[in-house]
Amino acid sequence: MTDTQAVQDSTEATPPTPKVPWWKQEIKISEKRSFSKFTRWLLIITLPFILLNLFSVKPLWEVGWRTRLYCLSNLFPVRSASGAKFAAGAWMPSKRIVVYGAPGVKDDAIAEAHEGMRKITEEIGLDVTVERTSPSPEALASLQAATSETSFDFDTFMKRRLDDRGSQYAEMVVVNRPFTDPDWAWGLAYFPPGLAVLQEGKTDINLGRHEGAHLLGYDKHDDELPWIIFGYQEALIPGDRDTLMMLLPKSRNTLSPRAHDAIVNFWRGAERDGRRYFK
Question: Is the domain covering 72-219 a CATH 3.40.390 domain?
């Protein structure tokens, strides 16, 4: 037997290598680098979640808000100035939001903030009382501690208010100083402690509605992720949308369907504890 024949016989005797399925194949970036099996499965598992934060569909958007998938920042507890810990949204069962102004703030600005907050709760259909009131002595002390000659510190005010009123209710407050951080903001709102603060001079009904929507749990703007939600008629380019919940609305002040459904489903999700929040 010649050497050539031996090689041929050896080749014929060797069974063909079975084809490896794609999900078991090693992903090679180069000859020296490749993904491990763990990394490969991690990518397969996390990829759908990444895609859902870039693109979504209406049913998943609604379910995502009921289950808090799209608003994780609303789950973070907050601490008061004394270090006491409060669960995020612990004020919700009170179904009460009070609106008042810092000393020196004009009545018209407080009235516009109150009307804006009242209107947004009506648009959502919530059974929440929006009450205009005068600041309590404790609130006045908190305002004084958070206010300097040139600015207003939201974080200082929030922590002191948690010590004073706890989770008895939420608040919308109008102040006559720009914010310390960021100093360009017209209003700041944070759902977990139940606090919204508006800047006098920038205040109107629609700013009250905008910050009111944030106070009610919508922790996004309409040009943020997900960029496109299939099932809603909205501009494909996020920056072209002109709705109430854009960072700087241009002309339209309508609450977008995506924002409306988000807030509704967020509060529907809270009803799992047996309480009812809708009229």
Answer: yes
